[in-house]
Amino acid sequence: MKKIDYKEIEGKSLAYYGLLGGLGLIILIALLAVYRMEHEGHYITGMTNQIVWGMPHVFAVFLIVAASGALNVASIASVFKKAAYEPLARLSGLLAIALLAGGLVILLLDLGRPDRLIVAMTYYNFKSIFAWNIFLYTGFFAIVGVYVWFMMDHNMYKFKKKAGLAAFIWRLILTTGTGSIFGFLVARSAYDAALMAPMFIIMSFAFGLAIFILVLMASYKWTGRELGDDILVRLRGLLGVFVAAVLYFVAVYHLTNLYITEHHGVEKFILLEGGQFTQVFWIGQIILGGLLPLALIYAPGVRDSRQVLGLICGLIIIGGLSSMYTIIIGGQAYPLVMFPGYEVSSTFFDGVVSNYTPSSYEVALGLGGVAIAMVIVAFLIKVLPFLPASLADKQ
Amino acid sequence: MSDAVNHSRRSFLEKTAAVGAITIAPGIMLHQVASAKPDDQPVTDAVRWGMLINTNKCEDGCTDCVDACNAEHGLVGNNRPETDTQYIRKVTLREKQTGHELSLPLMCQHCETAPCVDVCPTGASFKRKDGIALVDKHICIGCRYCMMACPFKARSFVHEQVRNQTLSAPRGKGTVESCTMCVHRVDKAQVPACVEACTQGEHHAFIFGDLNDPNSEISQELAKHGGKQIRADLKLNTGVRYQGI
């Protein structure tokens, strides 16, 4: 096989520093938002005792899910032995680490007591899926870090496949853990489904690949390096399969619930009567994030259009955030069913659909996490050879 | 010599306390609450504290239990109902088919297999051996996963700076809290504040006591007339039971 020539990006242009500066500004705004949230308390956010997890969790879970999906390209190269993906494997590993870091920073800074990080790292309740996730996340950093190292160090290159396999298995377990955060919640009608874990895995494939393609196209365009159509057509085809699979899982999830009388209430809420949640589900998750990208991927005439591919990826990201919003916030907004057959009311909002309006603090924190992930990528592709000097089509 | 004096003094105090308790809270016998737990003794599973609430005796509109709880724990609202803490609340139920209405107090149900304890990453949510579910405010990181997991919406997150704290019920911004079954009173052989207030108000909707002791009033009443668990389908074996639902 031809040797691939990897090269750091130059990163001396005004545009590069402009990008870093812009991302830095977003991070700064996020930190100010966090300071206010922690100083005043969470009452200044849209989160309440009813909607206990809000926009920060939408962004964080999206990024964490996308992180494991971003590793797919590397896995296809080293585990499934598709040589065409080999040149992209380093960037795939880097993006996976960066997205996970961004997501975790959001989760940490949204805690009521982020200063107690050391407590979270030293006190464990091993029955908690959250505690398992702490190990899954740190393990992911370590394993993918080693994998990237083996890819870059020619002395260690011979172990690359083994590390790739370990990373692939670990990422499947990690997303199972993320999905199970919701799947294991017996109390709420919208959760409590084993399907959550595989659904999150398939979602990770789509979201992670969409972000990967955008980052790939942007880095090659902005550095003036060549990026051939062959690889993009391959990635685009893969994206189509993943988006269709996500729609399939979402359909199975809702059809199962629709069959079970106990869950008719929550289904009616999400699918028909949930106001903003119904809109986000149909418009954001299904149409913009599913059907439209699928139609564009397979539409004749736009196969080679990079603008359309960029649009498709953007739509999938919007769809991903929408699905997280529907699952996380919609799932909490529907009231707990404690007394079947009764209408319930109280001063604590029992029996009523909870309101939620995202606050600017929460959105700022979420965007800050995204910016952190992007800064990590932008910085590391400058200092280490992650990107092939050319990805031009083979003649 | 001094032993004899102490013995007689203790006996006198016990009798006075018993008479006092019966006078203050008729219907609640001191022996049901067992004896005070000395601070240097660990909690044991010899007892399991529980409550039985008769909804037929719970008046719609009465908030004696809620007021007593708020006073006991220094809970003051900030006029922000969506984020203000509530340990106990009155819930009104209306049967859809018949229109029958009833009212009941709802708080932490002190489950034997508590979902909040299962999901807590640090172990801050824990259950004492005597069945009381609590939050260790020192190791709670404020992730709120317990609030996601609780089937009874029994927990509140401290959304802002706390004021009016009491010595017996410390609270902290950024941590999660809920009904403690007045553990600080139970350990001193007193009944929880809500139970005391309901009894003093002559409603007698609450019976507090040891579910492990077949001779306790709560066990006797449960044996005679039964009691239901909210969300019994989850098989959590709650420490709070209801009659009339």
Describe the structure.
The complex is a heterodimer of chains A (395) and B (245). Chain A is mainly α. Chain A is built from 13 helices and 3 strands. Chain A is globular, with a radius of gyration of 21 Å. Chain A starts with 5 loop residues before the first strand and ends in a 7-residue tail after the last strand. Chain B has helices at 2-24, 64-73, 115-119, 145-149, 183-186, 193-200, 217-225, and strands at 49-54, 89-95, 101-106, 125-127, 133-135, 156-157, 176-177, 206-210, 240-243. Chain B contains 7 helices and 9 strands. Chain B has 245 residues and is of the alpha+beta class. Chain B has one domain: Alpha-Beta Plaits (2-Layer Sandwich), CATH 3.30.70. In chain B, the strands form 4 sheets. Chain B has a 3-stranded mixed sheet with strand order 8-1-9. Chain B has a two-stranded antiparallel ribbon with strand order 2-3. Chain B has a two-stranded antiparallel sheet with strand order 4-5. Chains A and B meet through helix 5, helix 6 and strand 2 of A and strand 2, helix 3, helix 4 and strand 6 of B.
CATH architecture heading of chain A? Up-down Bundle
- Determine the CATH topology of chain A: Formate dehydrogenase/DMSO reductase fold
Summed over residues and divided by their number, the pLDDT of chain B gives a mean of 89
- Structural class of chain A comes to mainly alpha
Give me the CATH architecture of chain B, please. 2-Layer Sandwich
